[in-house]
Design a protein that fits this description.
The protein has helices spanning 2-12, 15-23, 30-33, 36-63, 71-78, 83-105, 114-137. It is mainly alpha-helical. The protein has a single domain, classed as Orthogonal Bundle (Farnesyl Diphosphate Synthase). The longest helix is centred in the middle third of the chain and has 28 residues, at 36-63. InterPro entries: Isoprenoid_synthase_dom_sf.
Length: 140
């Protein structure tokens, strides 16, 4: 249940169109965009957004009786944990995702000339989407 939830969310959360905005003004070839490190960074950044969105929205969703499509609810029921244990577990998951992003950052392919700058700008944009999502979540 936990894994299938992430599979669905990765396709429905809207990060892919958002990431396209990061490269809209660039001319990065498909073979560069499909590099395994770039693809993995996109997926990990999406996972960080999914985790944060679910943590931030759990209280509102459960108050409205709509918690069934929320990571907190799913983890709590799949692993038979209380809310605090679940929050701790998800926090550890988030930290693990961030660690993977930071480690993978060192493996971003290096290209000579303008392509390198474009790739670096794109992957910086991925991280900025994660941070922007956090900021947006606390606006109101």
């Amino acid at each position: 249940m936990f894994n299938s939830y992430f599979e669905v969310c990765r396709e429905t959360i809207g990060s892919k169109p958002a990431y396209a905005i990061c490269e809209m003004h660039m001319n990065i070839p498909d073979n560069v965009m499909k590099h395994p490190v770039i693809v993995k960074l996109e997926n990990l950044c999406t996972d960080a957004i999914i985790i944060n969105n679910n943590l931030f929205s759990y209280n509102v969703k459960q108050a409205c009786g709509d918690e069934g499509h929320n990571l907190v609810y799913i983890v709590m029921h799949q692993f038979s944990m209380d809310v605090q244990a679940t929050m701790n577990w998800i926090s550890d998951l988030h930290n693990s995702v961030v660690d993977k992003i930071l480690k993978l950052w060192r493996d971003v392919p290096i290209y000579r000339g303008p392509m390198d700058r474009q790739v670096r700008t794109y992957v910086d944009g991925l991280a900025n989407w994660v941070r922007a999502n956090d900021s947006w979540s606390f606006e109101v």
